[in-house]
Amino acid sequence: MVRVGILTVFFFCALFSPLTPAYTLNNNITLEDDNLWRPVTAFNAPPSAQQVITSYKNASETSNLLGKSGAVVTKIALNNPTTGDWYVLPQANFIDVGLAYWQTEQGDIVKLADFSQSHVNQPAILMHGQAFKLPFYAPSSGYLWIYLEAKHYPTPVDLSILSEGVFLHHQFYINSLSLITISVMLTLAMMAFVMFLRVKQKVALFCAGYVGLHGLGWAFASGAVNTIYASPSFNKHYLGIYLFSFAVSCAAAFTYYLFNFDKEKANKLGSALKYFTVSAFVCGICSLFMPFYLVFYIAHFLAAVWVMLSLTTGFAMLSLNDFRAKYFLFGNMLYSLSLVVFVAFHFDLINATSSEILVLLALAIDCVCIVLSLSEWLKLKQHEFSTLLHESRFDPLTQVGNRLLLNDELIKLAHSAYIIVFIDCDGIKKINDALGHAKGDAFLINAAKLMTQHLAQDGTVFRTGGDEFIWLCNVKNKSHLPQLKATLTQKLTALHRTIQQQWPQSGISYGIASSDECQSHTECLTLADQRMYSLKSAHKLKAS
Predict the structure, then answer these.
(1) Burial class of residue 83 (count of CB atoms within 10 Å of its CB; 0-12, 13-18, 19+)
(2) Which of 25, 21, 161 is nearest to 82 (CA)?
(3) Which residue spans of the chain are classified as CATH 2.60.40.2380?
(4) C-alpha distances in Å from residue 265, one per residue of 256, 260, 273, 502
(5) Domain 176-380 maps to which CATH number in 1.20.1070, 3.40.50, 2.30.30, 1.10.3470?
(6) CATH second-level architecture of 2-168?
(7) Where do the DSSP E strands lie in 37-131?
(8) Rounded CA gap, 161 and 145, in Å?
(9) What span, in angstroms and rounded, lies between the C-alpha atoms of 243 and 221?
(10) Mean pLDDT in runs of 10 for the chain (544 residues)?
(11) Rg (alpha carbons) of the chain, rounded to whole number
(12) Spatial CA neighbour of 219 closest among 247, 196, 193, 200
């Protein structure tokens, strides 16, 4: 009875349906979405072959599926004069339900594949699309029935039938490039996130979001995640579109901080980036409660706005000779061009083969450029930090360490043997009064230079006041302290003579104290200071 029912359905379909042209499988075939599909009422459960055939009979063709949604059926008459395997590729980005049946000329029907994106075991893994095998064990003719169901068809759904060799080459090309580019993006995102953990800068965090959310979005949209874990209750391919709003929000925030617009509150370009960041994020939140077709169009609108905004920012920064803009602009020009092609393809304005691969390649290059921009930003900040650190730890006049650097070094010597020499330059007031402060500064610069030369490898020179200097000498072995004291005394005596030869009205007074005489470096400084004043008093008595 079942066989009689199937034959009856087949008879009436053939009788009342328009004559379907037969295609001979000698070469690869591409059927354009031009009256190819018939919209039908969606079923609550995956339909049987009889339901697919009956719904096809009661429906009529539509011009194409661009921008439409729901369930559709097609019937294709095929003639294969040889044996072998062919692969059928419905070119649809999103398929909630995809079923294929083969009907022989005798009316026998077999189920070829369930290629629904939420199906756990895909018949043939092809990223950014679907595919299933059409095997012929003997020369035969018949009808290929395909049932699709989707929330949105972003492009016309063409149908390709490829020989096994051509398909395997196409599959390798699409899958390998997709996995490589997605892996590059996710790896770069991890690198940026590690940078953020180290430097705690917002620009690194938003860079990780920019690159990572794009990579994760394409991992979902391409079906890469689905090959690892497929959920029959939810089609994860849609998540790529949902994540896009958050990805471009991070992209705008990254650009905002990359070019330091956070420090220029009145900058119009910075304000535009800030508003776009917030707007894209709000769109991402709102999209969670919208039908998918609206989310799809919002994502494309945001893409168009981001193309204009990113290129405007890149050219504006490049015109200001901002070296970070060279990487940013180059990457975004490639990505923007690919997005234009991608959006135009989705609106059937152009016919682009493998447009997803074009976008992925451009995006991977863009992400490399973005991380390079981040590295340039970090180098600049590191240079600024080093400059500030140097300015805060070194005396700007003499270029020797200041009191802050001395304190840092003293802390390091808490449990070591050391010698502190407290030096005061004599006669500096006389030089300033007689020759002017410029000569007084020249004297201090010359004195610091001579101290550094005389002390050499035995220690470090610090300027701690107007005419006060301190030598700090670390000793590896406590037993070497007496010998080093004697050496320093000789060097200080020679330094005093050298300075007096160049500046007769001047000289130095000094005091030496070692760690074996005191309990702490504070006591050591006090003792050296006292001894210096004792020598200074002696110099004054001698001069009088």
Answers:
(1) exposed
(2) 25
(3) 2-168
(4) 11, 10, 12, 54
(5) 1.20.1070
(6) Sandwich (2.60)
(7) 38-40, 70-80, 84-90, 97-104, 109-114
(8) 13
(9) 10
(10) 45 44 88 92 91 92 89 94 92 90 91 84 80 92 94 90 93 92 94 92 94 94 82 83 95 93 85 95 95 92 92 90 84 83 70 76 88 85 79 88 89 85 89 86 91 89 91 88 90 90 86 89 90 86 69
(11) 39
(12) 247
Q: Determine contact, residues 366/352, Cβ cutoff 8 Å.
A: no
Cβ distance 152 to 331 under 8 Å?
no
CA 272 to chain centre: 21
Q: Is residue 184 helix, strand or coil?
A: helix
Residue intervals of the chain classified under CATH 3.30.70.270 are 403-543
- Cβ–Cβ < 8 Å for 328, 258: yes
Give the strand order in the sheet containing 132-136.
Answer: 29-31, 159-163, 84-90, 132-136
Residues of the chain by 3-state class (helix, strand, coil), percent to 5: 60, 20, 25
Q: Is the distance from CB of 56 to CB of 75 less than 8 angstroms? A: yes
Question: Residues of CATH 1.20.1070 domain(s) within the chain?
Answer: 176-380
Residue 93: both structure tokens together:
């980005």
Which of 244, 263, 269, 243 lies closest to 203, judged by CA? Answer: 263
For domain 403-543, which architecture applies? 2-Layer Sandwich (3.30)
What would you measure as the largest C-alpha separation in the chain, in angstroms?
135
CA distances 536 to 444, 507, 540, 541, Å, are: 18, 10, 6, 9
- 162: β partners: 87
Q: What is the pLDDT of residue 362?
A: 86
Q: What are phi and psi of 477, to 5 degrees?
A: -125, 125
- Sole residue written with tokens 């990579």: 215
Cα separation, 71 vs 157, whole angstroms: 12
Q: What string of DSSP letters covers 29-52?
A: EEE-SSS--EEEPPPSSPPPHHHH
Model pLDDT, residue 352: 60
Count of CB atoms within 10 A of residue 437's CB?
10
Of all helices (H) and strands (E), which one includes residue 76? strand 70-80
User: Would the pTM count as exceeding 0.85?
Assistant: no
